[in-house]
Amino acid sequence: MTAILQLDHVGKRFGGLQAVNDLSFVLGEGEILGLIGPNGAGKSTLFNLINGVFTPETGKILFRGADITGEKPFLIARRGLARTHQIVQPLMNMTVEGNCTVGACFGRENLPLTDARDAAREAAIFVGLEDRLQMQALHLTIAGKKRLELARALAARPTLLLLDEVLAGLNPTEVEHMIGIIRRIRERGITILIIEHLMQAIMSLSDRIVVLNYGEKLAEGLPGEVAQNPQVIEAYLGDPKLAAALQGSA
Amino acid sequence: MLGIIASIIDGVLVGLVYGLSAMGLTLIWGVMDVINLTHGTMIVGGMFALYFLATGLGVPPYLALLPVLVGGFLAGVALYWIAVHRMVGRPPLMSLLSTFAVNLVLIGIGTGVWGTALFNVAVSLPGVSLGRYTFPGAHILAAVLAAVIAAALYLFLHRTRMGKAVRAVANNREAAELVGIPTTRVLAVTVGCGVALAGVSGLLIGTLFPFTVLSGDGYQLKGFVVTVLGGFGNPVGALLGGVALGLLEGAVTPFVPVSWTLVIEFALFVLVLIAFPGGIFASRRGAL
Amino acid sequence: MPAMVLRPFFWIITLVVAAFILIPALGDNVELRESLALATVYITLASSLNLMLGYAGYINFGSIVFFGLGGYICVWLVDAHHWPLALSLIAAGVGVGALAFIFGLGILRLRGPFFALSTIGIVEGVQAFVQNFEPWGGSAGIYISPEVFTPLGGPGRALWVIYFALVATMGLSLYLSYGIKISKFGLGLLAIGQNEDAAAILGVPTPRYKAYVYSASAVLPAVAGGLYFFKSAFIQPSDAFDLSLSTEALVVAMLGGQGTVTGVALGAYLYEELRGYLLVSGTFSHFQLVISGVLLLLIVLFFPGGLMGFIHSRFPRTQKVLE
Question: How far apart are alpha carbons C323 and C321 in whole angstroms?
Fold first, then answer.
């Protein structure tokens, strides 16, 4: 199995805070790797490091063997890496179709406008937004916006997809729908790195789990192993609900 | 050599007044992310107020500070309601345009009534001599008053309830509202203070140099430079930034024709921003 | 680009250009020609400004600098070096476009309001430079000797030639504006205008695109400037770099509806007519500023979509045809 993403001793400081510290892991092609950890553990920062928004002070990030450490975000997107955001970032005054077309135009395949529109429509249909293609993004519900965020990333036909809490703020039906979509994304051969707080969901979706705490890797392994890991449970003990959920999903 | 030092010292004195003139701009910018493009014209307003109070009504120039302070505050509150209130929360570009629009109106009226006539209320006070060089008394007094007003602003922000409310709103408007701070009133007060500061600094500058309706542009530009040098919403920083600018001018003007001074200051503005995209003290945004 | 020819709006633009050419020409109406000439300048400036403002979302307060520099380059080449007009115009356009690209790479690193402020400074800086630049006449400016009109068939005919050239420039600016809007480049710009950071993460090459559009917004105003000052046979720094013209272009673009091609053109035309009336009715040139200011304030506060935004919301069908 080839490594799609490799992190070698990546570190990032913000003033006095070491947000990410000496982090290393490997993500294999076709895997779904779940990233969990208490709030403030550095998960979103890690995503920002991977897709070029921040530059790490130490360490290297390799995407399909190429060193992308510190590369600009738009170049990384061209390589085939797409991401969704915890706080969704739709292009408000553009339609669903327009948003996705941007993704398709400037993503991995760098499609011309007409082909991009087709790819956009396809991605929108894939996530279930076909009835709202011409709706302006600002008129969508939060669930709709989350789907748009995902569709837009998919329209870019990425090889690696970074999902940042796609399930947050969704009701149980919507969560189930999203989980189904994520599984189908993997079936298409796209590798996924996913941050999620919904324990049940991430434990069942992921092939492997990496646990972050205070910017450091606390544990790594199969979901079952990680859930039993006493250090991991202790890290979550500050949050009894989460600890119970961990133990419950073991 | 002594000539250059004298020029520099004078630059520091004038710089304190520049710092004051920037404080209004940086206060409004730092608290509500609004760039007040009427700032320069409000400074000119202070200059004209001085002219009419001093030469028209015979009010001693420095006593005119009080009415200008009050008048400026009221004008600022009016400005808030006309051009800023609806822009809060919208992208800063929108407030840029709305204050720009008000400025057009003011300049249009100003040049329509007074044209580009030169006004001079320069006050002559006994100065302090250092060897061959005399530092004009007016420069010294203006500098002292600028420092006093700046200190008053600092005390206001850190020792009064309203001042603390202003800082709270600057830090996080939504959170401030949640704890019961009447944000609209605070924002109106902030703009009022900002314009009042512009007005009094205009008055002080008016005691030093002649002016026209269009003089505001230059001082507004200096205000921008001072703001990026000293930090947004940071009054002490504004004072220091003003001094730095004054120093720079003092060092440069003996060697460079006057028309280039503004260009150099502007280039400085652009270069500092290219190097430090949020201003030199970017990390302190939102903290007064 | 070829696809553009099939769209109805392309033909609307062509009709407008044809009207501008035929109506004054057929009636040999000099007064109308002069009024329309000024309108073409406003439309060219506003449409070009719109590329930055309406598409990429960057306010350029100092777009006059392209107009003025273009004027200077053209006038200087014609007067001092006896270049033919056409060549001088091309040189002006290309030269200013290239300068804009280089400068753009620098100042476009600044975000939103900072960029806007720096555009004012560029005008001040260029004006100060030109005022001290002897080869361009310093603050006195350059007067063109009347012989330059001879190759164009004498002064009378030359004014017609210049007019047609101005109309052509206006037409080009409208086609360019539309062409960009329906292209992939335009889509990227619109994304930048909505959310620059998100656009970058989506793969839009933001630094390059911003520099391209800034440069594109410079070329046709430069040519228009060349034509305008050649026609006046005189150029001086205070006219060439008068900020109120770029302010008016900004008001006009917002009045008509930033981001739309029709709105901007319509706004430019209406404003120019209004201004014409004002100037005739007395020495109200300062009230021109007051009116601009009031208009802009009203638009920003209550009608951010401008005239076109209003029309599109009332008559949604128009969105398909009138861009």
Answer: 6
Residue C112 tokens read as 């939103």
> Among C18, C50, C22, C46, which Cα is nearest to C214's?
C50
pLDDT score of B171 more than 70: yes
Higher pLDDT: A233 or C179? It is C179
Q: Which of C7, C195, C196, C201 is best to mutate for the A interface (most A CBs within 10 A)?
A: C201
pLDDT band at C118 (very low <50, low <70, confident <90, very high): confident
pLDDT of residue C318: 76
DSSP state of B172: -
**Of residues B141, B167, B143, B142, the one with CA closest to residue B154:** B167
The pLDDT of residue A249 is 62
Q: Is A91 in contact with C198 (Cβ distance < 8 A)? A: yes
DSSP per-residue string spanning B228-269: HHH-TT-HHHHHHHHHHHHHHHHHHTTTS-THHHHHHHHHHH
A91 with A150, same domain? yes
**Domain coverage including residue A229:** 1-75+162-167+193-250
Look up the pTM and report it. 0.87
Position B30, amino acid: G
- In this complex, the chains that touch C, judged by 3 or more CB pairs closer than 8 A, are A, B
Q: Is A187 inside any structural domain?
A: no
What average pLDDT does this structure show over B65-71? 92
Chain segment B228-242, per-residue pLDDT in tens = 888 777 788 888 889
The domain that holds C173 is classified in CATH as 1.10.3470
pLDDT for A50-96, tens place per residue? 999 999 999 999 999 899 998 999 999 999 999 999 899 999 989 99
What are the tokens at A55?
């530059």
One-letter identity of residue A66: A
Instruction: Kindly state whether residues A246 and A197 are assigned to the same domain.
Output: yes
Q: In what order do the strands lie in the sheet with A58-63?
A: A17-28, A3-14, A58-63, A66-67
d(Cα B141, Cα B62) in Å, to the nearest integer? 10
Contact C121 B267 (CB under 8 A): yes
The answer to whether residues A114 and A70 belong to one domain is no
Tokens of C179: 């062409």
**Nearest-angstrom CA–CA distance, B16 and B208:** 13
Same domain, A85 and A70: no
Number of structural domains chain A divides into: 2
pLDDT value, residue C103: 87
The domains of chain B are located at 2-125+136-284
In a domain, residue A178? The reply is: no
pLDDT at A191 over 90: yes
* Six-digit token string for C221: 């105003």
Domain hosting C153: range is 2-321
* Residue A98 placed within a domain: yes
CA–CA min distance C294, chain B (Å): 7
Half-sphere CA count of B141, side-chain side, radius 13 A: 19
Mean pLDDT of A108-119: 92
A:C CB pairs within 8 Å: 70
Check residue B277 and report its DSSP letter: B
Question: How many domains in chain C?
Answer: 1
Domain B2-125+136-284 has CATH 1.10.3470: yes
User: Does any domain span residue A147?
Assistant: yes
pLDDT digits (tens, 9 = 90+) for C208-242: 999 999 999 999 999 999 999 999 889 999 889 98
Range in B163-167, B252-256, C96-100, C290-294 with the lowest mean pLDDT: B252-256
Angle between helix axes B216-230 and C112-131 (nearest 10 degrees) is 130
Which pair of tokens denotes residue C144?
């063109």
How confident is the model over A48-57, as pLDDT tens digits?
Answer: 999 999 999 9
Check pLDDT > 90 for residue B190: yes
Cβ <8 Å between B101 and C112: no
| Same domain flag for A61 and A115 | no
CATH code, domain carrying A237: 3.40.50.300
